[in-house]
Design goal:
Layout (H helix, E strand, L loop, with lengths): L2 H19 L11 H5 L16 H23 L1 H21 L10 H8 L3
Helix pairs in contact: 1-3, 3-4, 3-5, 4-5
Length: 119
């Protein structure tokens, strides 16, 4: 697995594992418009590395990231892949904050697909 894909994979896998085993951690990084308005700026990026689909969703998202991320990074290069991953993820979060406050957190593949489809 290329370096950037492996890094994003490990960060996402680690945060997803932590949210599964640490009681009370799961809601902390979720999208929360009120908390963002109160100055919790990190809520713009934390939904990119957490999962809200349980074990099945996490496994699917990580497998997708590994496969699509590897292909995209090999085609685009590490820097361009990371920039497009981040830009796609932040655009997804912006859309999520524009939707009703009950919209679920955007899982990390929302960041990966724009990077994969940009060739």
């Amino acid at each position: 697995m290329p370096r950037a894909t492996a890094t994003v994979f490990l960060v996402t896998a680690t945060t997803s594992t932590l949210q599964a085993v640490v009681t009370g951690l799961e809601p902390a990084p979720r999208r929360d418009p009120a908390a963002l308005s109160a100055g919790e700026w990190w809520r713009v990026v934390t939904p990119l590395v957490v999962q809200d689909g349980g074990l099945a969703g996490t496994v699917f998202n990580l497998a997708s990231l590994a496969i699509v991320g590897t292909v995209a990074e090999r085609l685009l290069g590490s820097r361009r892949w990371l920039v497009q991953y981040a830009a796609g993820g932040l655009a997804g979060e912006a859309a999520g904050y524009a939707w009703p406050p009950t919209a679920p957190a955007t899982p990390s593949p929302s960041a990966g697909w724009p990077a994969a489809c940009s060739r």
